Amino acid sequence: MQRFNNFSLKQYNTFNIDVKAKEFIQFDEPKEIRNWIEEGEFNNPFLILGGGSNLLFTRDYDGSVLYPAFKGKKIVNENDDYAFVYFAAGEDWDQCVEWAVEHNLWGVENLSLIPGHAGAAPVQNIGAYGVELSDLVETVEGVYLETGKKFLKKKDSCSYGYRYSIFKGPLRNKVIVTGVTLRLNKKPATKLGYGSLKVEVENMGAITLQNIRKAVINIRTSKLPDPEEKGNGGSFFKNPVISGNFYKNLQDKWPEIPGYFLNESNRVKVPAGWLIDKAGWKGYKSGRAGVHDKQALVLVNNGGASGLEIADLAMKIKEDIIQKFEILLETEVNIL
């Protein structure tokens, strides 16, 4: 366990916001969490920080930032069809995807290049190109912060939904995830329902695991800025889910509005990026903050922006979308 005071978080959030934590505690092994709890500091203000890709800091953090830095990638069990793969919470998520592809394991390739750590992936239920992590989760491991006891939750007890899990709801700030075990396919199991992805893969000449990963990376890098070059948190807003009837009303005014019906329900997911783009925000700049010129769903730090500048821009966009479409956008990024 390593502890630091008045610690800069600029390198620990992908918006590159220059704020400080009163205290920064890095856990290198899960057992160190229990030691910290036994010191009696659990009741102090704290924030659990992973890769910092879903956080927008608007001020210094007057408490303890808890940083799980656990490492490890391994196959823990397997049969003829599946390999059960454990990723420790502190592992870079895209490096986990790369590892799976190198081991010819199918399932996570569509989730390539999503920023963040493996521990946050089952918490956020990350997803892209027709795949959500909950499709693959076998178990999630962690520690209860109040007692220091370990837990092992199977997928069915994680309350998964769109960008939601029990760790964002009832167990928010009550646990630290230490790792996740995924069930990956040993045999080809492609998900190429998104047209742009299918076209990109087919242009490569063969539908292989490696080509699918390359295709996802190509598409994401063509649309999304590298956080190392321009601070951002990926998709800033969730795609809103509306009723089928309301969607039909919107089609009367905007016939080209895209929508994806959810299973057999009368609910439709509408791309937030399309709404923001249609409202004229793509490429917009407000001081040092802005909207990415290739993907309207991404808010960016053009250099030296404060978290408040970006949060203010997000609020203006939300208000405008309500006025134009009568849809309330929810942020995917957590604003602190």
Automatic annotation (TrEMBL):
Database matches in Gene3D superfamilies: 3.30.465.10, UDP-N-acetylenolpyruvoylglucosamine reductase, C-terminal domain, Uridine Diphospho-n-acetylenolpyruvylglucosamine Reductase, domain 2
Gene expressing this chain: murB
Name listed for the protein in its UniProt record: UDP-N-acetylenolpyruvoylglucosamine reductase
GO-annotated molecular function: FAD binding; UDP-N-acetylmuramate dehydrogenase activity
The protein's enzyme class: oxidoreductase
Record field: catalytic activity: UDP-N-acetyl-alpha-D-muramate + NADP(+) = UDP-N-acetyl-3-O-(1-carboxyvinyl)-alpha-D-glucosamine + NADPH + H(+)
Species assigned in the record: Marinilabilia rubra
Single Gene Ontology BP annotation: cell wall organization
Domain FAD-binding PCMH-type: 17-187
Family: Belongs to the MurB family.
First-listed, main subcellular location of the protein, grouped into a coarse class: cytoplasm
Keywords, sorted A to Z: Cell cycle, Cell division, Cell shape, Cell wall biogenesis/degradation, Cytoplasm, FAD, Flavoprotein, NADP, Oxidoreductase, Peptidoglycan synthesis
Cofactor entry: FAD
Presence of the UniProt keyword Cell cycle in the record: yes
Subcellular location: Cytoplasm
Domain of life per record: Bacteria
GO cellular component, one term: cytosol
PROSITE patterns, alphabetized: FAD_PCMH
Pathway(s) of this molecule: Cell wall biogenesis; peptidoglycan biosynthesis
